[in-house]
Amino acid sequence: MSIEALKERLPDYAKDLRLNLSSLASDITLNEQQLAGTFVATAIASRNEEVTKAIIAEFGAKLSPEALDAARAAAAIMGMNNIYYRFTHMMGGDYTQMPAKLRMSVIARPGVDKVDFELWSLAVSAINGCEMCVKSHEHAVREGGLTSEQIQTSVRIAATVHGVAVALDAEPAA
């Protein structure tokens, strides 16, 4: 399945998502690896098998095997970190001072340019709603030289991919 097939599966009420998906797939704000990795990581974070397969079919070949693994790793590690750090942020108190005691070595050595991995982690963290992680990764990508527009593009991709997953999930229930 491709992005075109995925767009065809979207119901008429989701035509805005179809249009956003088209425009973002050819966006030039991000380089090819950043764009493809953001799509892959956020598709995985959307937790919709159809979306994930279509996005990986479309963008997987645009990534080296190491970059594809790094995009997968960003989705996976943020799946863990976003839960943990969202909890500590909500609860405060002693929890914010306690060491996480969770392995996260992939963040230090992701196998791709650090700023790209941080960008993918930011987009996934936006989907997962972890304010602390979003702020941390946004700071890292800014320090890495990315612009507000590039960061916004990654979050627009995350929002659109997640919206597509929601629309497709709603269809069997209709």
TrEMBL record:
Q: Which family does it belong to?
A: Belongs to the AhpD family.
**Any coiled-coil regions, as ranges:** none
Q: Which reaction does it catalyse?
A: N(6)-[(R)-dihydrolipoyl]-L-lysyl-[lipoyl-carrier protein] + a hydroperoxide = N(6)-[(R)-lipoyl]-L-lysyl-[lipoyl-carrier protein] + an alcohol + H2O
* The protein's name: Alkyl hydroperoxide reductase AhpD
Q: Which gene encodes it?
A: ahpD
For biological process, the GO terms are:
cell redox homeostasis; response to oxidative stress
Kindly list the GO molecular function terms attached to this UniProt entry: disulfide oxidoreductase activity; hydroperoxide reductase activity; peroxiredoxin activity
Known EC number(s)? Answer: 1.11.1.28
Q: What does this protein do?
A: Antioxidant protein with alkyl hydroperoxidase activity. Required for the reduction of the AhpC active site cysteine residues and for the regeneration of the AhpC enzyme activity.
Q: Which Cys pairs are S-S linked? A: C130-C133
Matches recorded under PANTHER family: ALKYL HYDROPEROXIDE REDUCTASE AHPD
Q: Which organism is it from?
A: Acetobacter aceti
Keywords for this entry?
Antioxidant, Disulfide bond, Oxidoreductase, Peroxidase, Redox-active center
Q: Which residues form the signal peptide?
A: none
Q: Which InterPro entries match?
A: AhpD, AhpD-like, AhpD_core, CMD-like
- Domain Carboxymuconolactone decarboxylase-like intervals: 94-174
| Keyword Disulfide bond assigned | yes
Q: Which residues form the active site?
A: C130 (proton donor), C133 (cysteine sulfenic acid (-soh) intermediate)
